[in-house]
Give the backbone structure.
Amino acid sequence: MTHLPFIIAAYAVFVVVLAADALGTYLRLRAARRLALQRQHRLQARDKTRPAAPLATELSR
């Protein structure tokens, strides 16, 4: 029974490292999602400012 505190400490360290990894992954995904939304909004705004292109001549033939 003298090893029990060491085993508990080892599991505690494992849980802390696992939680830190999960938190880091969550923050990375949140930042990537935010950047993707900004890119999408920027592209949509760029498309709205562009005048509509006339139909191609191949379509009228």
About this structure: The radius of gyration is 27 Å. The chain is about 80% helix and 0% strand.
